[in-house]
Amino acid sequence: MAKKKSASAVDEHAVSFLGMARSYKKAADLLFENDKTLFSPMYFLYAHASELALKAFLRAQGLSIAGEPKRNF
Fold it and tell me: CB neighbours (10 Å) of residue 19?
């Protein structure tokens, strides 16, 4: 029988991804406001923020993320 994951542990892990996503988005927003010519770094930051937000969603649903080591909550 599969072990049931603790909701608080899953939520905590999802929140950590979401916090990082917000930080990358804020950095991209600041870069956009100050120098609109830096497209590549700005796109990288927005793309990474999107990826982390999606990972937060997956973790909040209790799903594993490809390439992430197995965790026992």
Answer: 11
